[in-house]
Design a protein that fits this description.
Shape: globular
Largest sheet: 7 strands, mixed
Number of strands: 7
Order of helices and strands: EHEEHEHHEHEHEH
Distance between the termini: 10 Å
Structural class: alpha/beta
Oligomer: single chain
Strand content: 15-25%
Number of helices: 7
Radius of gyration: 17 Å
Protein name: RAB4B, member RAS oncogene family
Length: about 210
């Protein structure tokens, strides 16, 4: 039905590449080095009965790559904003990453905050409550994840995709708008949707 452009953003060492690898390959990436520039992965998922392809850009978290990675923000529909629950420093930089996403991608970008490395709970430096409060204040969804065990990894991507889909159905997001980060997977869907939006008729389930 649709193709969504996603970003995975956050400071270096938070486990962004491992989250992506766990989502795409369903296993933990043992030999993970810092990403140089940008890495890419894609997966087709079923969201609310609709088939959606997620094109995911995993961006380097190191400052020296910021000018390169920022060019990939353009036209992103969704983002996983990742920090490491055992590192206060990565949590403290979240506001800067969020500003970049909303300025460079789109003010309407759907962002889910991911507190990664949940498996290292005894070493935690950031409480669930304070991260939850940050998410609430900035109108973000929030989950704690573990790229090692796979906990909530799939749910993070699917929750983000589900929210985008709901916003398309409600008319809040327009796939036709340039830079929306959304493409139709089937040209006939575009023709189907146009009269509906013009008449403000609720989308009917399709038997395809």
């Amino acid at each position: 039905y649709f193709l969504f452009k996603f970003l995975v953003i956050g400071s270096a060492g938070t486990g962004k590449s491992c989250l992506l690898h766990q989502f795409i390959e369903n296993k933990f990436k043992q030999d993970s080095n810092h990403t140089i520039g940008v890495e890419f992965g894609s997966r087709v998922v079923n969201v609310g009965g609709k088939t959606v392809k997620l094109q995911i850009w995993d961006t380097a978290g190191q400052e020296r790559f910021r000018s390169v990675t920022r060019s990939y923000y353009r036209g992103a529909a969704g983002a996983l904003l990742v920090y490491d629950i055992t590192s206060r420093e990565t949590y403290n930089s979240l506001a800067a990453w969020l500003t970049d996403a909303r300025t460079l991608a789109s003010p309407n970008i759907v962002v889910i905050l991911c507190g990664n490395k949940k498996d290292l709970d005894p070493e935690r430096e950031v409480t669930f409550l304070e991260a939850s409060r940050f998410a609430q204040e900035n109108e973000l969804m929030f989950l704690e994840t573990s790229a090692l065990t796979g906990e909530n990894v799939e749910e993070a991507f699917l929750k983000c995709a589900r929210t985008i889909l709901n916003k398309i159905d409600s008319g809040e997001l327009d796939p036709e708008r340039m830079g929306s980060g959304i493409q139709y997977g089937d040209a006939s869907l575009r023709q189907l949707r146009q009269p509906r939006s013009a008449q403000a008729v609720a989308p009917q389930p399709c038997g395809c």
